[in-house]
Amino acid sequence: MTSTTRAPNGGTLTNLLGLSREQMEAFFLSIGEKKFRASQVMKWIHHDGCDDFEAMTNLSKALRARLAEVAEVRGPGVVYEGTSSDGTRKWVLEVEDGSYVETVLIPAENGHRRTLCVSSQVGCSLDCSFCSTGKQGFQRNLTAAEIIGQVWVASRSGGPRRDTANRPVTNVVMMGMGEPLLNYDNVVPAMKLMLDDNGYGLSKRRVTLSTSGVVPMIDKLGDELDVSLAVSLHAANDELRNELVPLNRKYNIRTLLDACQRYLAKCDAARMITIEYTLIKDVNDQRQHAEQLAELLRELPCKINLIPFNPFLHSGYEKPSRNQTMRFQQWLYELGYTAPIRSTRGDDIDAACGQLVGRVKDRTRRHERYIQSIQLDAD
Ligand code: SAH
Ligand code: SF4
């Protein structure tokens, strides 16, 4: 979806921020310009973080003036920005209707990787029983400009970045708020911009989409892009998964794993699916669950990420003890799987954010689980 606002002359301004290369080329053709202008303007927007046509000095003055009449580069407003003592950075962004989304940039301990966790919707309709976003219900899809706008804000914070050797964002995971495959038409152009050399130039291994299992859209995604895929499994039998992830009643585990195999068959051979498994005390953290999980995944090239449940008010679930989490990890190890436990980071800015931005307080819990779930081994 292309977003527009009303221009002073009564027309509408096209927001160029969210346009993929094809869409940008079509835009320039539509205003009687050559296609190559698209890559010039994309570099200004995404490489330099520029939102002012006047500063785009390799365009003629006449074209700059024309662009100012018909277009704009409008990113989300930064409501809060903070850096935690461990280097995790967080932004609370205001999007078009006054809703807020959070974006978190997590540096890896070795300093080489900086992973940005990006949201795709405000709220979520899928109502997973252990997820605070699900509990808020669905408010709306983010536009492509609002999705890529999160990468744009985080990248801009690193200053001008013609220098690709020192990028502020090296990896993106679509693991923020919302189910990305239920906002396919906006998520795909935004991901194309993440991959495009005139956009953020990230390799497809460094861009990960996380889904709770919208099977037909996994197939569709595989036909269009081959980014890394993470699947939120959380249970190895349908009875339990129906309870945790209600979408399982529509697309059960077998159907989902078959879709994963089809996805891998379309990608290059070395790729794997990341299986996300949120460990919930006494619900899915027992030996029998580890055994079922190991058996279930036997045929699928995959790696498992264990995410200790992050409690929130009235969730009705508890986080397993550290010992239990490690026992579960050990059981998986004995069954042939190395499954990293995703650790919590950036807590001090979460608290700060909760205090500073009272209106988004109910969403700040999500920050913790972002942090836990996104340190994927995507190098
Ligand atoms: N909707 C997508 C992507 C966003 S959720 C999905 O479900 O995959 C990102 C990850 O955080 C998912 O694996 C999700 O199951 C997990 N998650 C949600 N709530 C959590 C919580 N309270 N504690 C730990 N992980 C949680
Ligand atoms: Fe939506 Fe993902 Fe939360 Fe489920 S876990 S409610 S799919 S955001």
From TrEMBL:
Domain Radical SAM core: 110-350
Enzyme kind, highest EC tier: transferase
Binding, [4Fe-4S] cluster: C124, C128, C131
Miscellaneous comment in the UniProt entry for this protein: Reaction proceeds by a ping-pong mechanism involving intermediate methylation of a conserved cysteine residue.
Family recorded in the similarity comment: Belongs to the radical SAM superfamily. RlmN family.
Documented EC number(s): 2.1.1.192
Name this protein carries in UniProt: Dual-specificity RNA methyltransferase RlmN
PANTHER family tied to this protein: 23S RRNA METHYLTRANSFERASE, RADICAL SAM CORE DOMAIN-CONTAINING PROTEIN
Species the sequence originates in: Modicisalibacter muralis
One GO term (biological process): tRNA methylation
Cofactor(s) of this protein: [4Fe-4S] cluster
UniProt catalytic activity: adenosine(2503) in 23S rRNA + 2 reduced [2Fe-2S]-[ferredoxin] + 2 S-adenosyl-L-methionine = 2-methyladenosine(2503) in 23S rRNA + 5'-deoxyadenosine + L-methionine + 2 oxidized [2Fe-2S]-[ferredoxin] + S-adenosyl-L-homocysteine; adenosine(37) in tRNA + 2 reduced [2Fe-2S]-[ferredoxin] + 2 S-adenosyl-L-methionine = 2-methyladenosine(37) in tRNA + 5'-deoxyadenosine + L-methionine + 2 oxidized [2Fe-2S]-[ferredoxin] + S-adenosyl-L-homocysteine
NCBIfam families: rRNA_mod_RlmN
Keywords: 4Fe-4S, Cytoplasm, Disulfide bond, Iron, Iron-sulfur, Metal-binding, Methyltransferase, rRNA processing, S-adenosyl-L-methionine, Transferase, tRNA processing
Record's function text: Specifically methylates position 2 of adenine 2503 in 23S rRNA and position 2 of adenine 37 in tRNAs. m2A2503 modification seems to play a crucial role in the proofreading step occurring at the peptidyl transferase center and thus would serve to optimize ribosomal fidelity.
Chief location category: cytoplasm
Top-rank lineage group of the source organism: Bacteria
Subcellular location: Cytoplasm
Catalytic residue list: E102, C353
HAMAP family, per the entry: RNA_methyltr_RlmN
Keyword Calcium carried by entry: no
